[in-house]
Design brief:
Blueprint (H helix, E strand, L loop, with lengths): L2 H19 L18 H4 L3 H14 L2 H14 L23 H16 L5 H24 L4 H9 L5 H11 L6 H14 L9 H9 L1 E2 L4 E2 L8 E2 L2 E2 L3 H10 L4 H4 L25 E5 L17 E7 L2 E7 L4 E9 L2 E8 L12 E8 L5 E4 L6 E2 L5 E5 L2 E11 L2 E10 L17 E11 L4 E10 L5
Antiparallel strand pairs: 1-2, 3-4, 5-6, 6-7, 7-10, 8-9, 9-17, 10-16, 11-13, 12-15, 13-14, 14-17, 15-16
Helix pairs in contact: 1-3, 3-4, 3-5, 5-6, 5-7, 7-8, 7-9, 9-11
Amino acid sequence: MNTRGEAMRKLIDLSISAGRKRQSEQTNFLHLHYHPKGEAADVAIPLLENFLFAWSLFRSRTAENIQEAKSLLDHLLHFEQQGNFPVYLHEFPKCHDRYLAFHVLSPLQGIYNQFQTILGQELKDRLQQKIQALKAYVMQTQASHPAPFPIALRGHSAVQEARPLVERLCQENRHRVYGPADLGVILSAFYTMGSSLQDSPWRDLWGHINATWHATTATYIGPGIAELQQGYEPQATLYDLYLGYLSDGFSQRALADGVHLLHAAYVLPTGDKVTGQENPYAYALLERKAGWNPATDRSFIPLKLMWGNVERTHTLVCQGGNLRTMQYSEAGNRIELTFELADPIQQEDREKMREIAFYLDDHDNHSITFSGQTASTFKLHDEVQISSKNLTIRKRFALIEGEGQFVGHLMKGNRPAQVSLKGPQRYNAYDWQIFLRTVRRTPRCVVKATIEIEKGSGDK
């Protein structure tokens, strides 16, 4: 078996394994809840992940799994309601997510296209009927309540007669930037429509995918929009699985057990090949403009610096803080970030008095010093040095407009994008925080952070 074929088999096996870990012996359905409270995760039966599990069972092509998949599919199809499905089985007949059909249509169409000859006439006819109902629903819903582009693209990718609409949506959204979760949905939709993206008219997207894949760590290194952190590393998504398949290299975090593995069913065979970047480190920068909504700070990352390998991805990010704007410039291994601080925060709120915040994943390879000394506080002009394996990062802060007194702090904590603070992990600290706190300052202050990155000079 060739390497690409082995990678596809690996993904299907991992998808089935992830399903088995969530499968109930009593119901044979997968039980999980997207936002569990109490025992909700033990009783909730999501329709989408169960359809994806059935698709993976079919694609395993073993007689036992195919028989199980047919039984699972037969039961699930009964919950269709006017072209859509409930999010969870217990919510039937209510369909709270009007766009769920957009995600379900691909696995149903995939099962029909590949396995209709082994379904049996009754199940085949019923599946075809449900597919037609979903296609009609998707078209009607998009006309009355347009879905966000990634969801719309996935829903219409399985509808041949919707190709003119797909072309228009792609043209209208070709210059927008999406995070890895949305890119995974977009990528799966394109490969549903055709076997190659590399040789399609969408070369801009293909170029973006190659330019923002860090092959050294097998991680997305594009602009930090809608990105989350799970534990010590970036959260794994369908995009990590798709790019791992396209580049012949998966990160360990992508292959670790998680609900995202169930979505590996969306990965379809192709001969396209991603090379990506093979530099020891990579970074992405985003300006923060005036009028920015602070509510988006959880997943908006103005600076993201990444290094390591496929076994462990390290990140240093600038995120959150009390900022009005952030601008950047770069030259070689030098980055300058210029922060215009927002209005001063009341002294009583020490948490919000953190004007500028950086986060570094906690790891034994890292050491942090201030002007050569180990400490938990530092002065504004002290040199902050982060030494990691084969990498050294030097950073200095300077007040360039306004007046004020600031104290720098180093302490354990979590970046705003952290999603693992639940249950037994809710008190864990996965990061080192390096932040500036205000003692006093004038209303207008501008602080510059200068960052220099050196390869091969870490002390660990």
